[in-house]
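Hi support team,

I submitted a single chain yesterday and got back a structure, but I'm not sure I'm reading the token output correctly. Could someone confirm the output below corresponds to the sequence I sent? I've pasted both exactly as they appear in my results page.

Thanks,
R.
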Amino acid sequence: MGAWGAGIFDCDLGLDVKATFREYIADGVSAEDAVSRLIEEYDTDDPDEGPDFWLTLAATQVQVGRLTELVKERALGVIENGAGLEAFARDCPEDLSGRKRAIKRLEKKILGPQKKPTKIKKEFVDTIEWESGDGLAYQLPSGMWTGLKVRSVTRDPKRLEALYEVVDIYQKSMPTAKEMQNASIHLNYSSKVDLAAVQARREEIRRLRKEESAWPRVTDDDHWEPTLKNQWCHAMASSVFQLYRLGPREKPGGKVVKICEGLKWEKYTNLEGIVFGGWKELDAYLERDHGLK
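Hi R., thanks for writing in. Yes, this is the structure output for that exact sequence:
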């Protein structure tokens, strides 16, 4: 279920259903056709997720004044039978009473008078102009230049994101392709602190290896190296970040120029990246976390 609270939309599935239905309506699809498409996309007969599907879809339709007879009937059936509550109790037992109250409130809205259909604007969809491995020159507010490496780009209907790293360039002129290719990664302060801790631990292990009598296990490289490698990966990944536009008018604070392709990067495990805001937040991030301004 992916639930984290008692609210109707406090689950991953609920948020997905709500967003997808609104997208269909914004694209000019009728409420009935939107429901048909959603039924094809989701397993509505699943005993755990099916009830959430119908409740969140009903709540979404009530919000936008488009409650269809099919959704109304199915949602009321879920409410009457208490479907989904057993699965919810397994995930969030402490919120069960709150969940029942939320469902009761939804039932009143479903049975009550419905508002007129509201206009749903088509949501802004960000675009990413570059590809994984591209090197970008970026001009800071001071006029100095640095560089960004595009680590990865993901494009699919449910996810659009790009991950970046700052390269160790800080100069008056726009960096060349060769300079970008030869530049190492410019770590943020968090990564530097974490890497220092990893290095200190490695040195301590080396010291203890010379004193086998103190703790024989420290001579086992297979035991320690995977742990240190994971800590190193976590430290390096702390310098990776996501950038995105919040609206069609948002632009980077400084000048961005693609200057090369095919840059290589180190592979880190469990990589997600820091999400700190849109492009307009980049200058503040670079100054605060990298000392670049």
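A quick pointer for reading it: Confidence is low (pLDDT under 50) at residues 215-222. Let us know if anything else looks off.

Best,
Support desk
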